[in-house]
Write a structure and sequence with these properties.
single chain, alpha/beta, Udp-n-acetylmuramoylalanyl-d-glutamate--2,6- Diaminopimelate Ligase, Chain: A, domain 1, Protein-Tyrosine Phosphatase, Chain A, 14-stranded mixed sheet, 9-stranded mixed sheet, 25 helices
């Protein structure tokens, strides 16, 4: 057990203020929004894109009484009863504590790194080793400087082996990870091109990754990935050399598996690997070699790898039957990944009720400490019902606040599914892989065709932070979620923005705002271009209208007069040059007079829209817009005799016009990963439109494909029909070779006209199988250019019949 006093002995403090040296520490926290057991937490005020010191007060309100900080000017006396430890660098202090905690365990620690395959190898090794060992694995992709520290803290006395993933993207990062993890067994999965930009050469990248194995007594890797100068007696390699410990003599791909003929310690074996793609086969061979290095017999290894399946390594949010939302996290179950999933559940407010389906924890010791922590986590969420699956987990049934249903096997709950009466609720499915809860998820999810738009909610958070670091502290941020969040989905995206504390949301129409309110969004919502027919809904759902003309201003005041409503919040739109909506300069004096003379409305903000903030050719025009806006905003404030929020910068304005950020900025397309600034912001792609190959056919030269015989084949060709057409939002202009899609990393072109529900691709030069996944827009910016439009149009044009699947990595 750690206390404030014992942690002080580990950390190098420069100053302390301790009220209770015996205060117990169980949790490490760095995000005040996710604090669960505040009274037993140690909060690290990290300085990154956001300064953790700004959230100490929030953490304190949630019960945290132990803090590690670096701001010397912090007044600890403000926080009665709290313990403060000052250090030079809070991240370094967190890493030092994690390293100390790891040193307490004399168990095998497997450190896994590589360009690709780290997480899948870690997950598969956990599945293979948990059969006979209490195996700890770092959760999901916790492989960064922060993630590794948090992951190591979760290793407990009950664990017999630990699997820890380490990821780097530039030189100098691995040293600190090495000192924390100190693996006894090292695993290098591959050395590809991922993250290559952070290194001067392939040799430098390899040396950096190899540094993780400084303290390892055994190193597992594919022999063709290891550079000759690094080979030593610790290497336990697999590959096609007779000198390799696992000598792969040949691979024979079959219809749905691969036969691997291998030789280990002079004995030949044939393994059946349940995959045919090269990446999966390589990852399995890495796992086989790790188990061999640990002393497992090949016969036992074969028995275990037969149960490996492709892993969906992301928490996913899907639309379910009976107006339910399904959060599918059914591939793993440990306390850390459970905490992540429960945090995500707490963000979902689109339904009045929440339910949980959870299985036994494989590899965990069901002692009082474990059960107490599990019960505390589950009771912290207001679940209406909790379904327990397995034998051990039934021990906590009597301690849960929710209504409990218990089942021993997955088959039992499948049989009783209709009786559980799921409707109008958010359902979290959380289970160990051996229980196969994905079968349950398939039954609960609403059926659609195979074309899906995958939305990475974590990328939205990341992109939001990239822009937040560009605006001054105290400047508000309004996020645009109009047009179904640029095609990404409304309340799902709004939920993540609300959780990340944006100041305002903006929608195009009142019904979009109503949907957000009904989905549990409490943030202020501005509605663009409202009309008289929607005023009642504006009032009922407390939506704030944009007022853009004298006609709408008078009509809205008259509406409020009829209902005797005062001080209703409104936002005033000025036309400074866009000439779309807004008060013209010649109307402005009259508008100010009306606003001054009424008590019915309260002006919350005044704003305008820049025409070409991202184009230097328009800088003079943009300057004129800003100057006119400042003059008219000043005129308004003088008329009203109070200050209002002023905003003119859109996404490009945030980047190109830092002097014009004013009181608030509006973030739109950049939030969704489209960077039109020309500044190389490094945004992350948010949406990926995917479909599948329905059928393959071989056709001779001279044949045609599609309507009007427009797709003429000039050679013997292999044609793939894929399940997307113009009814799904795939523009007809992308037919006849203009559009490009990606299959297995290869770029292929369309053939013939785009049909309503399908289109055809020329896949002559690549290996393809029916049912294979297809990425529809490998480069959406280029696709837009190819047909003379903008990415906005392609994003917002994706049909509502295309299923949105949300995930959080």
């Amino acid at each position: 057990m750690y206390t404030t006093s014992s942690i002080l002995e580990v950390l190098t403090s420069v100053k302390v203020s301790v009220s209770d040296p015996k205060s117990e520490i169980q949790q490490l926290e760095y995000d005040s929004r996710k604090v669960r057991q505040g009274e037993k937490s140690l909060f690290f005020a990290l300085k990154g894109l956001r300064d953790g010191h700004l959230f100490i007060e929030d953490a304190y309100r949630k019960g945290v009484r132990n803090f590690v900080v670096s701001d010397r000017g912090l007044d600890a006396d403000t926080y009665v009863g709290a313990n403060f430890i000052w250090v030079e660098d809070t991240l370094v202090a967190l890493q030092k504590l994690a390293a100390f905690h790891r040193e307490q365990f004399m168990i095998p620690v497997v450190g896994i790194t590589g360009s690709n395959g780290k997480t899948i190898v870690k997950e598969w090794l956990h599945q293979l080793l948990s059969v006979d060992r209490r195996c700890y694995q770092s959760p999901k992709s916790y492989n960064s400087q922060l993630g590794v520290a948090l992951a190591l803290w979760e290793i407990q006395q009950e664990h017999e082996i630990a699997l820890v993933e380490a990821g780097i993207s530039t030189s100098g990062e691995m040293e600190r990870l090495t000192q924390m993890i100190r693996p006894t067994i090292g695993v290098l999965t591959s050395l590809g091109t991922a993250h290559a930009d952070g290194f001067d050469s392939k040799e430098q990248k390899f040396a950096e990754k190899w540094q993780l194995f400084e303290y390892a007594h055994t190193i597992v890797a594919p022999s063709d990935a290891v550079m000759s100068g690094f080979l030593d007696e610790r290497c336990y390699l697999w590959g096609q050399s007779p000198e390799d410990k696992v000598y792969v003599q040949s691979l024979e791909p079959q219809a749905n598996h691969t036969l691997a003929h291998i030789r280990v310690e002079g004995v030949s074996h044939t393994l059946t690997i349940p995959f045919i793609d090269k990446a999966s086969v390589d990852n399995v061979l890495t796992c086989v070699t790790v188990l061999s290095a640990l002393g497992y017999a090949i016969s036992m290894i074969q028995e275990r790898i037969a149960g490996l399946r492709p892993l969906e390594m992301r928490l996913q949010l899907k639309k379910g039957k009976n107006d339910c939302s399904i959060i599918d996290d059914s591939y793993s179950n440990d306390l850390v990944s459970l905490q992540i999933a429960l945090d995500f559940v707490q963000q979902q407010n689109q339904h009045p009720y929440k339910s949980l389906i959870i299985t036994d924890f494989i590899g965990s010791k069901w002692n009082d400490k474990f059960k107490s922590k599990l019960v505390s986590l589950l009771n912290a969420v207001s679940f209406q019902k909790i379904i327990l699956v397995g034998e051990s987990i039934q021990q906590i049934a009597g301690d849960l606040h929710a209504k409990v249903h218990s089942f021993t096997h997955t088959e039992d709950i499948l049989s009783a599914l209709s009786a559980l009466d799921f409707a109008h609720e958010t359902i979290l499915i959380k289970g160990a892989r051996k229980f196969g809860l994905e079968r349950l998820g398939q039954l609960l999810v609403q059926k659609t065709h195979d074309t899906v738009l995958e939305i990475n909610l974590k990328s939205i958070e990341y992109n939001l932070l990239q822009y937040r670091q560009r605006i001054p502290s105290g400047t508000k941020l309004m996020a645009m979620v109009k047009a179904f969040s640029y095609g990404s989905g409304s309340f799902e995206v709004a939920n993540i923005l609300q959780f990340n504390k944006v100041d305002y949301l903006t929608v195009a129409f009142v019904d979009e705002g109503v949907e957000l309110r009904q989905g549990g969004i409490r943030l202020p919502i501005m509605v663009l271009s409202p009309h008289e027919d929607t005023f009642e809904d504006l009032l009922s759902f407390r939506l704030e209208p944009e007022i853009y003309s004298l006609r709408i201003l008078r009509a809205f005041i008259a509406f409020l007069d009829d209902r005797s409503v005062d001080d209703y919040p409104v936002h005033i739109k000025l036309d400074t040059g866009m000439h779309r909506l807004g008060f013209m300069p010649e109307e402005w004096e009259e508008a100010c007079t009306i606003l001054k003379s009424t008590l019915r409305v309260k002006v919350k903000s005044v704003f305008s829209h820049l025409v070409g903030a991202g184009n230097k050719d328009f800088d003079d025009f943009t300057d004129r817009q800003v100057n006119l806006f400042r003059q008219e905003a000043d005129q308004l404030e003088k008329a009203l005799d109070y200050t209002v929020v002023k905003h003119i910068c859109n996404t490009n304005g945030i980047v190109h016009r830092p002097a014009d950020h004013m009181d608030m900025v509006r973030l739109g397309i950049g939030l969704y990963g489209i960077d039109t600034s020309g500044k190389g912001l490094g945004l992350q792609e948010v949406g990926m439109l995917k479909t599948t190959v329905t059928q393959l056919r071989h056709l001779p030269a001279g044949e045609t494909v599609g309507y009007d015989r427009s797709g003429i084949l000039h050679r013997q060709s292999k044609i793939a029909t894929v399940k997307i057409g113009y009814a799904d939002g795939y523009d007809r202009r992308l037919g006849n070779g203009v559009g490009k899609m990606a299959i297995g990393g290869h770029i292929v072109s369309t053939v013939g006209n785009v049909c309503m529900d399908m289109c055809m691709l020329d896949v002559t030069d690549i290996d393809v199988v029916e049912g294979q996944e297809v990425v529809v827009f490998p480069d959406i910016v280029q696709a837009a250019k190819d047909i003379g439009t903008i990415p906005y149009e392609l994003l917002t044009g994706i049909s509502s019949r295309v299923k949105r699947v949300y995930y959080y990595e």
